[in-house]
Amino acid sequence: MRRTVILAIGLLGAALGIASAQTGGQITGEARDPSGALVPNASVTVTNTATSVARSTTTNTAGIYSFPGLTPGTYDVKVAVAGFDTIVKTNIELQVQQTARVDFTLAVGQSTQTVEVSANAALLSTENATIGTVIEQQRIIDLPLNGRSFFGLVALTNAVLPGMRKRRSGHIVNFSSIGGLVSFAATGYYHATKYAVEGLSESLSIELAPLGIKVLIVEPGPFRTDWAGRSLLESRTVIDDYDSTAGERRRQSREQSGKQQGDPVRAGEAIIEAVGSENPPLHLLLGKPALEMGYKKLEAMKKDFDSWRQTTLGADYPEFQDAK
């Protein structure tokens, strides 16, 4: 059975951003009259057929229109202008990072008269060479996620799920971190994005399991990568009150850079083993520090749960409190 695996490299930076150029696509083209002359000020509407979300624009003085930043999916494009039949081109498949060209030759008539044309390969051409993903069967480990943004991960997931659902097969591998389970001083934004990856992935695993699609959340501890080196962006603001917490964490990160015990090659092998196993886990911790910190977090949570059990149960309406 053919298996599609999406390896989503997750959020190595601390700040959130919105994915558009890196994961979105674009539809552009021109409108001409029967003589071949370009038609300016024509009304152009693009509609996502799955969501019914529409955007409108007009052709410029050169008869050209453009819709950048479109979510990958299937679109209809409509052109309407007085004195010509309205034309709708349907079933236009837009892939991640693709710029699809959809040109129109208008016929003299009434704008109330609509001519519908189903798109095919002849209607679309790739304007640039970055059709980054018809994602199946391609290695996508180098596919950028717009600065490792959580929303880039969401956009990429939305782009690949239709194919997986159609095949009733696939395995999504999302990179979180032990920082998605355990928090430290100085890296609050980083943890916030990692917790977001955890929540999204766990929900996906529930929704996709009946469809034969699996999800793996990778949670590495400290590995000998450039994470704490050149890739680490630190605020220039130093507040003395946080010296023993955030300040100490910064110093430790710099001192440990290049000395971490985690081996990236062995980590990759572990991920491959997990994906290929008969019963892959939802959570895959990588490295001894991650395992130790994970257990410690579970123990701390259990201690809080047990210590405050009566208070927790007491928050229910009285008729539901018999089981204290």
What would your notes on this structure say?
The protein is 28% helix and 23% strand. It has helices at 150-167, 188-208, 243-256, 264-276, 288-307, 309-313; strands spanning 5-8, 25-32, 43-48, 54-58, 64-70, 73-80, 86-94, 99-101, 104-105, 114-118, 170-175, 213-220, 283-286. It is built from six helices and 13 strands. A five-stranded mixed beta sheet has the order 4-3-6-7-10, with no helix packed on it. A four-stranded parallel beta sheet has the order 1-11-12-13. Strands 2, 5, 8 and 9 form a four-stranded mixed beta sheet that branches. By secondary structure, the protein is α/β, with parallel strands linked by helices. It folds into two domains: 5-18 and 145-307, NAD(P)-binding Rossmann-like Domain (Rossmann fold); 25-118, Carboxypeptidase-like, regulatory domain (Immunoglobulin-like, Sandwich). The model is unreliable at 6-23 and 120-147 (pLDDT under 50). 28% of the residues are buried. The radius of gyration is 26 Å and the shape is elongated. The chain starts with a strand and ends in an 11-residue tail after the last helix.
